[in-house]
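Table S2 (continued). Query chain:
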Amino acid sequence: MSPASDAFDLDVVVAGLWQRLRDVILAEQRLEGFAFAPEAPEIGWSARLAALADDASARADLARDVALRVLGAAADGVNCRLLSVLRQDTPVALDELARRLGLPPVAVAERLSALSQLGLAARDLERNGALGTAAGCGIVALIEALSERLGGRLGRELPALLVAREGQR
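Corresponding output:
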């Protein structure tokens, strides 16, 4: 999502989060086929995945957990600023992110790792930077849309509230 398409689109966020979940599921399936040690018990990921596919309640719980984790991460002011910086179409160097956020590069790297696990950001290890994802850009667009509407309502209703309060004195 580029700055030209900043409007909130729930389908874009869902598609981005699904892509991240799909990647995790595929990685777990690959790990199931790898024998770490001959005596290690079988993981049984395929059976658990099949059970998840058949259980609407478990799928809803997983979706809710992911959604709440995403919203929690984006609700952090520094993470939200970081995701806002990553809305451009080109990778941003880790040092530049650190400078813009006023944090040490290690702190930014840790935040990026957490956001990457959720599918909200992606690391560019080759250039030691990061870039935004559709899900991350969509979540920032949601926060901005909510903020704009709430700010508009404050602007419309706060003066009347203050006038009414003055009339009661």
